[in-house]
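Format notes (please read before filing issues)

Several people have asked whether sequences and structure tokens are stored in separate files. They are not. Every record keeps both together, in the order shown below: the sequence lines, then the token lines. Line labels are part of the format and must not be stripped during preprocessing.
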Amino acid sequence: MFSRNIGLIRVEKNAQPSAKVVYAFLASKYGQELIDRGVTGGTGQLTLPTTYLKFLNVPTFEQKLSNLIANCIASSNADLIQSNDLYTQAETLLLETLNLRDWQPPQPHAYESTLSAAFAAKRLDAEYFQPQHAALLEHLQKHAPRVRRVRDFAAHCDRGQQPEYCSAGELAVVNSRHILENGLDYDNFERTDAKYWNDLRFHSARIEKNDILIYTTGGFAKKPGRTAIYLEDEPALASNHVNILRVSDENPLYVGVVLNSMIGRIQASAASTGSIQQEIYPSDIADFVVPFVGEKIEVEIAAQVEAGHAARRRAKGLLEAAKRAVEIAIEDDEAAALEFLVEQV
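Then the structure lines:
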């Protein structure tokens, strides 16, 4: 099932070129140029008619090159699946260790709190006093060897700053839409001018490797709380809707998994304010509780996150190799493309 805004191309079984080769071509710069030519519409809404796609000319290659390209695409897809599986395993290990795998928070139709609790929390909204929040914190106190609030081990906890985007910019910018369910959308970061890196106003928005990035602003359908760890060395800034959490004396990869799990999501739900647009503030995140389960398991969870990121990086490399092989075959010849792919894989 897919929406009407997505076009579907189904290649017949055993057809030449195969579906994977068609995909590699369409993803290459030559395929993208052809696709861009078929786009219609004004500034309001652009459309790529499926009738245009139907009549696109796609190159065919000798069987050996076609097979290598197809294998690259298949291996890339397998690495993406492995990446997602490794992250799921890391989160599952965390929840099982804390006896949260099958835990169901209370969700009564009605609940109450005291005026003193409301004054202490400086909150009057019902969401903050949801019983599931209190039940989770009580459960963590019982089952975790250590429990700490973020403020007790945070070296930095604040939102980024919003630079002006420019597509040709050399500096990456991470905004809230780049924080996915189990990682970051590294391939689609916004770009800005490199001057912002040395701008004193943006020093606090600089992202360092192993920083924990938290989605802090969302609408009704996309509530804030999603969390991911920045695992690359490329310089980047965080936008004003992304909170940078940098920890001092705990494993940041482990903390990131905790905050992205139900443990962090329930706390984020309680902390969120606003109706049409919900917000989590740095002071709220600093108040989050993080359970620690022992160094051995924490290291294992962090290792699975790193292995998942490495698998995702391999997947990207294989896809890029397949696309480049198509381009070399078009620009030069199939022998050069074949030689390139053999060296890459």
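For reference, the curators noted about this record: The chain has a mean pLDDT of 90. The longest helix spans residues 295-331.
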